[in-house]
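## tool: complex_structure
## caller: assistant
## args:
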Amino acid sequence: MSNVISFNDVSLRFGGVQALKNVSFEIEENSLFAIIGPNGAGKTSILNCINGIYKPTSGSINIFDQDSKDLHPDNIANLGVSRTFQNIELFENMTALDNILIGAHRHVDYGPVRSLLFSKKVRQEEEKARKISEDVIDFLEIEEYRYSYILSLPYGIQKRIELARALAMQPKVLLLDEPAAGMNNEETEDIARFILDVHEELGITVVLIDHDMNMVMDIATDVVVMDFGEKLFQGDPQEAAKNQKVIDAYLGVG
Amino acid sequence: MKKRPDLYTNYRNESSIFPTTFQKFWFGLLLVSSFAAPFILSSYWVLLITTSLLIAIASWGLNVVSGYAGQVNLGHGVFVGIGTYVSSVLGGVATTSVIGYELDMIIWLPLSGLAATLIGIILSPVSARLKGLNLGLVTLALVFIGSHFFSNLKFITGGAGLGRKAAKLTFMGIDLEAGITFGNFILEKNDFIYFFSLILCILLGLGVKNITRSKIGRAFSAIRDRDIAAEALGINLFKYKMYAFGISSFYGGIAGSLLFTLSGGVEPGSFSLLYSITFVAIVIIGGVGTVLGPLFGAFFFTMLPGIIQALLHAFGVGDAGFIFNPAEIERIVFAFFIIFFLIFEPRGMWGIWFRLRNYFKAWPFSY
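## result:
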């Protein structure tokens, strides 16, 4: 299997804060890759680096064997890297459907002049975008919230709509930043099911950050444990649970 | 079998502008009565409505860049000015002090829009670097740079305090300046400007609606709400901000090209800071980020002086001896409305209209 994303000796520094310290790992195609670690360990920084929102201070990141140094976040998105955010970053003044349609942005192809005239091509492309969105809505079972404004929806549903928006991009890699944060057991189970479906049915490589150890251990195929910006461990989730360093830093003695 | 009235059976129907026959009917009626207006209303009202329509076009432009794409622009009046002067130079008459080429409307109308677009696109990279108040300050600087150029490029504008004549109305070789007589009827110059404004207003209004219901409009709103998320979803911020400024200044330029043909002359002092701020006020009062809002706002702004005058006259105040003169009262009332709408009705007049409409839709069951 080939690598989708590889980190080569990546360091990230904000003034005096070392967010990442010489981190290297590879994410294989079709894996369900989990990043775990205590707060401030640099997990979200890793996602932001993949995404191009942060640029590494040193080292390089390859996405689909392409150096991401000169790529903007939108270029990286157009390579097929999609994501959700830790604190929901939905567009609040729009309906759920419009949010998901924005997710399908890269599949819609026309310029501003065509848009002003709403030409035949626009109508076709809009219909295409709508079909992509409807597929995702169907997949995540959020039909009833289609026309609801984001602010009027409960937290759990907002999380799911953000996942829908990310999926409407039809990505090759999906980055999920704490998809189960703040959810009860039932909602966590739902989300875990959807993540597995995304991974298995749609064949998307998933990179997952979460603090819910039961869920991560259950569904992940690979795991990286971070602590203070350094990689502690990489490998099988079951082995991670037995690793003494991981237990000391994060899992604790149960 | 009778169809359910509000049931959409396909995606295309759902995104159409007038999805129901009811809406089509009212729009049609409005259209017909609009075209009949010059034959019915007095020339004073035609003038007011024409001004409203043109200001609505310019306000739509500002609404695209500020209301939809969320880029603060306090210098929209400059784009209107650019449109005005491009049309004046291309369509105006040359004198000893100013240049003019007396070209046909069909040339200067689109060119004045495109020239403004070009300037807008040139300035748009600034917005890729700056956000919010900082961008606002830069656009404020634009107003002063614009004023400086307008006052000092004397061979184009005639210079401060003097001004020049606006473009001449020649459409497809027909001179409309003197008006045309049809039997008993005389269509004056301003009636023609009304028709042109009306047609442009309809076309450009549909254009705004088209943008908002397509990918471009969605991308604008995404940038306004959360630019980082928008970028992570594959929206090129630089490109879309450029589109927003381009479209916005196109609307401003088109509106400007006709706006001053009404009075026949234009003075550089017109494009002051107050003029640019007026558009911001119109968009806020009408409804930020809505299609109909700027139209409402423009009519409100244009009609307000007349309404206030009539009220003052009715109550007998505002004559000599009163502490404020009518123009001052007008400004105070307008400022009051801005504050009122910002605090109590952020969606502007559109918001009021929206609630009224929904109330009567469900009438007599108001809940």
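## assistant note: The mean pLDDT of chain A is 91. The interface with chain B takes residues 51, 53, 72-74, 77-78, 82-83, 85, 89-94, 98, 101-103, 105-106, 108, 110, 112, 115-118, 122-123, 125-127, 129-131, 165, 169 of chain A (CB under 8 Å). Handing back to user.
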